[in-house]
Amino acid sequence: MEQQIDQAIWLAHTEQDTVALAELLADWVKPGVILTLDGDLGAGKTRFSQAFAKAIGVKGVVNSPTFTIIKEYEGEKLPFYHMDVYRLSQDEADELGLDDYFFGDGATIVEWASLIKELLPAERMELFIEHLGDEARRIRLTGFGEQYASWCRAVQEIGAGR
Question: Counting runs of H as helices and runs of E as strands, what totals does the chain give?
Answer without folding.
Answer: 5, 7
